[in-house]
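Most newcomers find our protein records easier to grasp once they have seen one. Nothing more is needed to start thinking about how sequence determines fold. Here is such a record, shown just as it appears in the course material:
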Amino acid sequence: MGRVQGKVAVITGAGSGIGRASAILLAKEGAKVVLTDVRADKLTAVTEEIAVSHVLNTGRRGLGCCG
């Protein structure tokens, strides 16, 4: 956990590229992430990846939504 512990990060284009990498890194560093993307399938995939990692690392669950 790092400098962004407990902060909220809003990331656009989170389904791929730099947005995806930023979302994963910020979540790993303890930020609560709000993710957006025009491709719901890609957004769902990164949301699930972060959620699985979060549960494995903390034992706590988060909430993800696409639509």
